[in-house]
Structure formats: structure tokens, C-alpha cells
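Students often ask why inverse folding is considered easier than folding. One informal answer: many sequences map to the same fold, so there is more than one right answer. In these notes we will look at a single instance of the problem. The structure comes first.
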């Protein structure tokens, strides 16, 4: 690599069948077609993934390289500043904005396996540059921000691919995280990618657009509220009888997965990138 136990778990709002099964008789690993225009992509892995979920970063690299693209990893990268900005440490966050811009300013495209951190860059960096009173930083942020993408945005909007050659023979449900829905507006992009995975049984998650209760430090400062929200999400996940809960943010998956494990629910969590990287 260069609260109410009856809440929230009814039938999906669409009223359609909850199960979509895409099957294949072939047993061999799938191969993705070579891209017409290979792209050099900088990986912003995020501090959270780098320290707690490194397998997600590796899966993203494996996926993009299998699709014929070059992935580079700037080793000086660190936190995007989201935890600082969201807990009132604005000045401290500005220093991290400057660092991010310096490290990624010349990247053709930047991808991250975190809708939350991409949301930070796209939603808050302009405001923080204005707070700093630095016109040069503001111009650099405006130039860079459009090139910072979440994985499903990169694959569908920039690379023009939905079928990435993945195979995953499991019953799966997808949790759309708040930042992916409300800041990035990724819509159905992750679901389009999952529907194209061979042998997957994709089950619609009831009340999918409801928060899981994580919210970063919210889960620590408001633990009772967070756990009540989480309980609703867990009931919905387990109601699907899925073996795997997938999302585009490991932070939310950590919250959901920890509770599932404590309850011995028999459901594991996986990042979208890890499913798409799988070919067997």
C-alpha cells in the first residue's frame, strides 16, 4: 500500500419483504474488472480505526487495490479534531485542521472508512478556518473538502462501481449511521453496494434511520439516555435474525457490537469495507 420493549421493531416502513437474497452457484473467488482510469487514492484511516479496528483499514486497501487503484497512506496523519470540536475545544481543533490540510492538500482523492470523520471535515472545517481568521487556511479547506469522501461515495460517485466483486454468504442487516445519513446524505449507496455482493442475504433493518445512541462522548456523559436508545436498536437488529450487522462507522458498531456481545445475541458486527473486501 503506497426503554419500551414494543417500540421500534415493526415491519420496515417500506412495507416490502425484509429479505433480499443474491445467490451464486460459483465457489471460486470473484474478480473485479480492471478500471478504465486508475486513481491514486490517499487513505485517511482515522485515529479510531487505526488504534481499535485496523482490519477495516486493511480491508479498504485490499478492496481498492483489487479494483486496480493505487492507495497511499500518509504516515503523519492523526486525529481530524472531531472529539475536540464536539466537546468545546475549538482552538485545539483548529491545530488539527491545519495538520490535516497540510498532509492531504495534494491528494487527488481522500477516502475514509468513517462517515463520522468525513462529516467532520466536510461540515466543520470551513467554520473552524473562519474561527481561526486565516484566509489562507480557509482557501485550502475549500479546495480540499470536496475531495474527501466516505467509502460508498468514492465507489459509486467517483469510481462508478457498484459490484466490486465481493462474495459474502451471510444473513446481513445494515445500520445507516447518523453522520452518514444526516451530514453526508449517502442515501442508499451502501445498500446498493451490499445488494451487489454475491451470496449475501440482505435483510432490511426496522426503523433503520434511528440513532444507535453512541454519539461519541454523548454515550459517556449521558449513559442512561444512550443505553435506552441502544436498547431500541438492539431489538431491531435481533428482530432481523441477521448473523451480521454492517455499518459505515466502527464507532457505532463498537457501541452496538459491545451490547450484542454482552447479551450473547449471536450477532457480530462488521464494517462495510470488510464485507466488500471479501471474495470467498
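Output (designed amino acids):
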Amino acid at each position: 500500500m503506497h426503554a419500551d420493549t414494543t417500540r421500534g421493531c415493526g415491519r420496515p416502513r417500506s412495507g416490502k419483504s425484509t429479505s433480499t437474497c443474491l445467490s451464486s452457484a460459483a465457489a471460486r473467488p470473484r474478480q473485479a474488472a480492471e478500471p478504465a482510469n486508475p486513481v491514486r487514492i490517499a487513505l485517511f484511516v482515522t485515529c479510531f480505526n487505526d488504534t481499535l479496528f485496523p482490519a477495516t483499514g486493511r480491508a479498504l486497501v485490499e478492496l481498492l487495490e483489487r479494483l486496480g487503484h493505487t492507495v497511499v497512506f500518509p504516515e503523519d496523519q492523526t486525529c481530524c479534531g472531531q472529539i475536540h470540536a464536539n466537546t468545546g475545544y475549538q482552538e485545539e481543533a483548529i491545530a488539527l485542521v491545519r495538520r490535516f490540510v497540510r498532509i492531504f492538500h495534494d491528494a487527488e482523492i481522500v477516502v475514509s472508512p468513517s462517515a463520522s470523520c468525513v462529516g467532520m471535515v466536510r461540515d466543520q472545517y470551513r467554520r473552524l478556518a473562519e474561527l481561526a481568521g486565516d484566509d489562507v487556511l480557509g482557501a485550502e479547506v475549500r479546495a480540499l473538502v470536496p475531495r474527501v469522501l466516505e467509502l460508498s461515495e468514492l465507489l459509486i460517485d467517483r469510481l462508478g462501481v457498484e459490484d466490486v466483486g465481493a462474495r459474502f454468504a451471510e444473513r446481513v442487516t445494515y445500520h445507516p449511521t447518523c453522520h452518514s445519513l444526516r451530514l453526508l446524505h449517502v442515501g442508499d449507496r451502501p445498500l446498493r453496494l451490499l445488494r451487489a455482493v454475491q451470496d449475501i442475504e440482505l435483510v432490511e433493518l426496522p426503523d433503520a434511520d434511528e440513532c444507535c445512541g453512541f454519539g461519541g462522548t454523548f454515550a459517556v456523559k449521558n449513559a442512561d439516555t444512550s443505553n435506552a436508545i441502544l436498547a431500541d436498536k438492539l431489538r431491531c437488529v435481533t428482530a432481523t435474525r441477521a448473523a451480521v450487522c454492517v455499518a459505515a462507522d466502527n464507532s457505532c458498531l463498537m457501541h452496538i457490537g459491545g451490547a450484542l456481545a454482552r447479551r450473547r445475541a449471536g450477532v457480530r458486527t462488521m464494517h462495510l469495507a470488510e464485507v466488500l473486501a471479501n471474495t470467498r
